[in-house]
Queue: 3 jobs
Job 1
Amino acid sequence: MVWRVLKAFRSRNIQSSIVLRNFASWLKVMRIAAMFESSGTIVKACMRDFLPANLRLLCSHYRSVAEVCRKLRINRGQFNKYLCGNSLPTPFNLKRICDFFGVEEYEIGLPTEQFIILIGVKARRISPSSEVTAPQRMLDHLRQQSSSQLKAHTGYYYEYYHAMTEPGSILCSLVHIYEEGQHFVYGRNERLQIAGPDGEFEQYRYVGVAYYLQDRLFLIDYESLTSNEISQTILIPSFKSCITRLNGLKMGVSAADHRAPACSRVVWEYLGQEINRTNANRRVRLYSMDDPAIDDDLRGRLAQTKVVDGLFVIA
């Protein structure tokens, strides 16, 4: 087994100094692994600990996770479970994944630091510094300028907007705005139905920050699994004591291959500070424009848009 590891290092032209530095620790790992090789205990433990991060690293060399799933012919929902560490691939799927990325099955379960070296990716060297970076200064400035009125808008919402990936449909997602440290952040969950009799869903998770600036709510997020999309939402806050529905605009890109930029009218429906997430998630899906679940008020709000002097504005 040790010989296989050394051979793997040499086949990738890893510098001898790196091999020597890591050989002692590798030897210990390999000796322990040899003791339990028959039962596979160590291998499974390493897979569960390191496969998600290593798999995300491999996927980062492609345009999107969806592209990888299409080429592998593996269901996106199942592949997401591998990326999140919720489950391990079957031996058959593991071989397909490793063959696709050109790595050995034992390599994809290695500690991520070692895996980075094996696939030839140079880890970025971050020099320790107490100096605040430019992005940090920008975020801190916005946080200081943001009004404390944002606190009144924390809680759970349904978000409705014209689906950018499925034109002619309305997408309902679940949003949670909450305070974390000195910032207001939020998570947004989406589910898209996969065509077919099984009725499965593709899951998407967005995370972002929220600011209240000059009587407007600004929300910026990114898709946390693939990190290949940023969207922005601007809402008109409620000045009433009881929040019901908030109107605004949303800008992003289609998740389809053409990735067309798009802008849609958006409506947020307030649910409360605490909800039953299981029940709430049942409504998170795509709807047709004439679906009875979309009431007339909501349908009317989503339709109230027009172009004025070249500007797409809320009517």
Job 2
Amino acid sequence: MSHDTLPHPVKTGAAPAARPDGRRRRHWTQRPNPLAGLGSFVWLVVVIVPIYAMISASLTPQDQALGHNALKPPSSPTWSNYDTVLHNSFFHLLWNTVLAAAAVVVIVLVLCVPLSYVAVRTRGFWSGAAFRLFLLGVAIPAQAVVVPLYLMITKLNLYDSLLAIILPTAAFAMPVAILVLTGTMRDISEEVYEAMALDGASPTRMLFQLVIPMSKGGISTVVIYAALQAWNGFLFPLIFTQSEGPRVLTLGLFNYMSQFGVNIPALLASVVLSGIPIFAVYLVARRALVGGLMGVGGK
């Protein structure tokens, strides 16, 4: 006696529900987000409007600066303010700033790359404690230790020199640099380390042939961050320098201020010229910067 066998139902994934007009419903990630678009537009306005106002005011003649609406184009634009800036020790200030920024970047990379590598590859109480000690520097503002720093700078006979700007700036950039680099280096697979170890690679060889090439995003982020700290630094140059020799761009803004008034158009023209080099660096390395920041949180 034969029994009819019923076929087993085949399980299939649920198809997207069809709309009455025959089109499939789009996934939620594909839906437009008007709130995000509105927020992006507002943020764009917040960023662009001050830049536009600064450029507009820098092209305004000095005798019209106080009565000029910065949101309107100047009625008689002039380049005389930029000419004043360029002939007022601007290139000397720019050279000092470039030297300070380059030195800070070199010091931070030379110290933080090996330290981050040791913190990632070493398992132990002391390595973890040293890593947390470095991160503690993120919570210490420069204003809180400026007096001890001043005493150290004067005792080392570094006062009124570029080193008085470079060394503290590099020290305060190191905690964030170590945080970024350790986050990037932790993304490197353990199997890659083991493969190089089987080939007889030493820790130093792993650092230069594996870790550094695979951490280019984090290193680029650290380079931009350290350069920005030196480029925009104001507190250390103000307190640790006095003469014109080691003066940098941020202190050069005082050239347009006096007890009788402020040359606002020339001051803003100096700000515009000072921001062009670092903005160009950001445009070149912006992808690496974003990739390095994303690596901080891990995969």
Job 3
Amino acid sequence: MFMDLISFFTRIPAEGKLERVAKQLWALPLLALLTSALPMALLLLKIPIREILALIALYATIGLIHLDGLADFSDGLMAKGDVKVKFRAMKDVNVGIAGIFAVIVVILLQVGALRFAPFYAIFLAELNSKFSILLSLSVKKPLGEGLAKFFMDRLDRRQFFVGFGIYIALIVAVAFYDRIALISALSLIVGLLTIKIALDNFKGLNGDCVGAVAEITRTSSLVLCAILDNPSMII
């Protein structure tokens, strides 16, 4: 049903066209059901290093494009200079130390959080991450002429609010089982803060910025779920 969306936002073999992907952006929250399925299954197994295997399974499903975006975003963010200098650093094909550091921190935080969070936290994290992409595109402040602009130009209010409704429905559904689900939505604040940082530094959002928002939101959601499920961690 959403093969075009699946073809673009996952590594699952599927055929799709960008024009149809742009019409299916409202279904991004639903995609979390698919992308978190294998990681959740692995987390339920009582096997060694299941947290690492679950994260590998996640990235095998969604690909590394957002992680790459985080690296580029971090390089641009840490570059000293005006918007042009920062943008040039972000688009440099060579990953700098800031990008490497950001990727390592995000991976370590996710693995650590998965050890303490309930198995379904990976679904909540993916749900928040996917909705943060929708939030990023709804800003309608493109940086350059890339795919982010392509999707921003085609995302209308109807798509956004349908996606928002699906997001709320899925969060509430899990909340009937565990109220952690509702509180995990606070990770979107971190996503919104990342969007603001991007706008302050680059005056717009491109694919790298959107990818960074998705990665940071997912990581924040997992860390939040881990803390909420283990209150003694902060005492």
